[in-house]
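queue> holo job accepted (zinc ion)
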Amino acid sequence: MRNKIIHKTCIACNKSYDLAVNSEDLERYEQGEYAQNAFPYLASSERELIISGLCGDCFNDLFETGD
Ligand SMILES: [Zn+2]
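queue> job finished
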């Protein structure tokens, strides 16, 4: 059950996001579980917000530089 809402603000664009997770999964993550194992139901861009604080758009901007 996704009974916990994580409020996240992207550190680059300041957009806020609400991520619905299971509180037990969040505890597991805080105890060192990998985000992809703790939150398999989140989109990779949503997990990125939890891991790095960047939303999907900003993460892509940062890593798709294209010289
Ligand atoms: Zn962003």
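queue> The chain has a mean pLDDT of 94.
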